[in-house]
Specification:
The chain is an alpha+beta fold and about 160 residues long. The protein is built from 4 helices and 10 strands, in the order E-H-E-E-E-E-H-E-H-E-E-H-E-E. Helix 3 runs antiparallel to helix 4. The N terminus is likely disordered.
């Protein structure tokens, strides 16, 4: 029979608003407990029946932000570039390098929203930088072009704000 382990977050840690709440591991078969432990993403805990890795379940928008921060573009050199061309470049996985495990994931979905007839109102962008994250690049492009930058619905958005 497989041992079932249940993870219980201690109410005190949650109510107190701790960033790393404490928890215990409880063996449902015999009632024995291990802990308390502080929750830390990726922490390994040895239990008699094996090793368990704790992982936080992050909201999709946080995953997008974390992924954008992990992707580092070696060189950005936009000279009087159209925002649509920049966003097209940023959507292309070949445009940047990322940690080895990031290559197995699809590129970040970046959405550009400019109403019809407003294209001429969006200024071109000049930006030069080295080793800059995709997150910072997208925010800077939005600011320089007068667009709003946000992350929602599992995507990064550059949107007309006027």
């Amino acid at each position: 029979m497989k041992t079932r382990i249940t993870l219980f977050c201690l109410l005190v840690g949650i109510v107190a608003g701790c960033k790393n709440p404490t928890f215990i591991l409880k063996n449902e078969a015999n009632g024995s407990e291990c802990g308390p432990y502080l929750f830390a993403h990726g922490q390994r805990i040895n239990v008699q029946s094996g090793v368990y890795v704790l992982q936080k379940r992050l909201p999709p928008d946080r995953l997008v932000k974390d992924r954008m921060e992990a992707i580092v573009i070696p060189e950005v050199d936009f000279r009087d570039a159209d925002v649509r061309d920049i966003v097209s470049f940023l959507r292309t996985p070949d445009a940047y390098f990322s940690p080895a495990d990031q290559w197995q994931k699809p590129p970040v979905d970046i959405v550009l929203v400019i109403p019809k007839g407003k294209n001429a109102d969006v200024p071109n962008v000049t930006l030069e930088a080295n080793n800059i994250s995709l997150f910072v690049t997208a925010k800077m492009v939005a600011k320089l072009s007068g667009l709003d930058f946000s992350i929602h619905d599992g995507r990064a958005w550059l949107e007309w704000n006027k």
